[in-house]
């Protein structure tokens, strides 16, 4: 007896309207979430750019300024200015790399670690509000879909072809 091949659902044609709507929805949700998070962080006197630097350093403390610039998709001069301001407020410190004195590594100071913890709590509270009414199955499907889209985009951007 032959094993029956699994049926593959036919590809659903996407209309241009749907593709435009999807792009706008992704953009709008991202923009609105950033605006909401900015509002939540305003009492902490932290700008969006600063919280991005602190967030990346909280995951990998001691990154070089060049690594931060690449991760944040910013120029080295812009990141240098951000680090200058964060250093003046005592949230980060620069140290010359042990192997190459021309390279600066950036480290979180103790007070910024406390600030990052507060930011995480604020983020959790905001996410709870944003995800209100979305069940775990839908949320899981959405996360899987966005992850696949991200991988496809990274693949496209890393390909030699244009």
List the defining traits of the structure above:
mainly alpha, Arc Repressor Mutant, subunit A, three-stranded antiparallel β-sheet
Strand content: 5-15%
**Integer tally of domains:** 1
* Class by alpha and beta content: mainly alpha
Sheet of most strands: 3 strands, antiparallel
Low-confidence spans: pLDDT under 50, at least 5 residues? Answer: none
What share of the residues lie within helices? 55-70%
Number of helices: 6
CATH topology: Arc Repressor Mutant, subunit A
Q: What does the radius of gyration come to?
A: 21 Å
Per CATH, the superfamily is Winged helix-like DNA-binding domain superfamily/Winged helix DNA-binding domain
CATH architecture: Orthogonal Bundle
**CATH class call:** Mainly Alpha
The shape, in one word, is globular
- Order of secondary-structure elements: HHEHHEEHH
**Strand order in space, largest sheet:** 1-3-2
For the termini, the CA-CA separation is: 47 Å
Mean pLDDT: 88
